[in-house]
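TL;DR need structure tokens for one chain.
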Amino acid sequence: MTDAMKTAWVTGAGSGVGRATADALGALGWRVVLSGRRTDALSETARLVRDAGGTPVELPFDVGSDDPRVALPTIGDRLDALVLAAGLNHPRRAWADQGMADFEAVVQTNLLGVVRAVDASLPALRAASGVVVVVSSIAGWRPAPGAGVAYSASKTALAPIVRTINDQEAGAGVRATHLCPGDIDSDFLQQRPTVPDAAARAVMLTPADVADAALYAITAPSHVRIDELVLSPVSQR
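>> reply
TL;DR here they are.
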């Protein structure tokens, strides 16, 4: 790795927004540490990053259960960007049918996984005056009953997490963005009680749309902080 090459760690890199953001960072020539639960999917993302001109490093990792400190030797002493794109929901998401084990798994991934990754990464982020992009949801910005009890609660809690990073770590040049996309045509739709059809998917955001927003925050001048960014498909009300 050259001195000029920047490093990002992307969770949820096996698909969707995580994969698209990793690909976009690869096009900028970054070294991208790729984490996710599925090794085959990570390998495909690594190929995309390599083809785009970046340097991929595969690091299988489950944010819901694994200790993020295991990633630190791979990441190195400086981390220019941390993109937290791993997410979880469950088809049974209402009070009438949700199970507590499923509820806890969603919170472990969407909230505690984010907190643990940030906590472990802060020394390397401080060293590089790095950027944290927390890929949340429009359900973390305004009420979205259909998103489910656990998902809505876990995503809403991310706003103060990001705010406290910005309040307390500005002296080290660390910046964080609460990225809140609406409906995205991605594998995540498979976790809905009713999977949208092709017509519904056609008017949704794409993972690349959200990746562009993440890159906007990551590549902003060092004196600019994007506290919160909400993007929606025109069709979403």
